[in-house]
UniProtKB/TrEMBL annotation:
InterPro entries: FAD-dep_OxRdtase, FAD/NAD-bd_sf, Flavin-dep_Halogenase_NPB. Keywords: Oxidoreductase. GO terms for molecular function: oxidoreductase activity. Residues 6-303 form the FAD dependent oxidoreductase domain. It comes from the Bacteria. The lineage of its organism: Bacteria, Pseudomonadati, Rhodothermota, Rhodothermia, Rhodothermales. It comes from Rhodothermus marinus (Rhodothermus obamensis). This is FAD-dependent oxidoreductase. Pfam families: DAO.
Amino acid sequence: MSKQFDLAILGSGFAGSLLALLLERQGFSVVLIEKGRHPRFVIGESSTPLANLYLERIARTFEVPELLPFSKYGSWKAHYPELPVGKKRGFTFFWHQAEQGWKPTLHGQRAYLLVAASPHDAIADTHWFRPDFDKHLVDLACRAGVVYLENTMPLHATETACGMKLNVKGPEGLETLEARFVVDATGAHAWLARQMGFRPEPHPYLPERVAIFSHFRQVARADAWLASSQEAWPYMPDDAAVHHLLEEGWAWVLHFDNGITSLGFTLRTDRLPDQDPEACWRQLLTRYPSLQALLAHAQPLYPLRMLPERPECFRQLIGRHWALLPSSVGILDPLLSTGIPLTLLGVWRLATLLCQYNGAPPTEALEQYQTITLHEFDHTARLIGGLWRVLNQPEAFAGLSKLYFAAASFRETRLRLEKETGIPGFLLSDHQEFVQQQEALLAEIEQGCTPTPETLNATLAPFDLAGLTEDRHGFYPAQAEDVLAACHKIPATREEVWAALQRSGFIVPETTV
């Protein structure tokens, strides 16, 4: 085996293996270094419309057509039936009161919110069953020619005049590898940043949290909770990223088609019932009887895992010959499923830079990558932090969450209409007017005030393509008529919008305006 490479990538999760695949296809020699082996249990599973659009653009830009079916639930099921996946039609939120079963109202406020991301199953988003999906990407990378070293632990990294030297220990013993550029895709470990002498810095946006989670079989669905409103459902409530909002934090439920469910709690450290994950889990289920009923027959596939989620991030993401992917910058709470799209943006940007500069991006280009990545992290973390501040206030949370839904749908629509070029900023983080208005709203919340519905709607209105400023009684479907009615905001003609809706599969081509 050659020990000199154009690129070395640390970590073979979906981001590292995807980046390795893209760069190998573009003619680089790539080594992918993994301390463990696949398949393995990992979370970070829920995609979004923007994530799938990014994946589609990446596949086309770097000529990897095998990735295209993964951008929609229907095409995934048709082309890769052997790879488990979950159907994600939108975001579902249920608010709970401790010691009581779930009820449709809480303190006089509606205790549910369903926001659709797609109008039908064929173009739905997906939950990635990471044990199999990550392994599949590694296999694709290996078939493309990537050198894959599993069970290989990086020990030391040093910069040289023309690249990086990596000392690793694998099944064959100690080895020294050289690469012109190294990418850290190790996630929260951020091994390379620490190795280069950097440490994460605290940020003020989110509370200190702990995640407790596993995969389960025989988790019941909560659809029946909303049976009396079934005619208004934009989708089956559990065909989504399901959020159960609690006094201590919140719980996620993601159903896969293979009968497995990803389920976990994200809890404030200062509200943690117990330091032992099993005891903490039992106490939470006792406090929330409706959740306990959903898990009455659940069987865990793995022992419960308990991981800290500290409000901190790295501020130095680059060196002369190295860079971190966004997944290694810091842990963002998964409340809005922002992890996958942010990471895909990082893969897209770094792959573009490395190809543009033949594996040796200049300092100016890397500094721009760092600036954009940190700005998007802060922009997203501050919004999620605002939502945490009103987690137990259904009306305030629902109103504030619409900033996310408006920004995501506005950006997605403009991209599909080809109204923007290049790699976009996440959640309109590059749109000055939107950023200013969002920051003003979040500053109010951080000072203990709650923006009025009128103030929120005034902020949303210029970007609302989904009827979010209307009161739809907690149910927001994905409808062509909403986009058509708002076409002047994009701006685009009705004919342009209609053609884009047809191209995307949103509507069937036979329908007419």
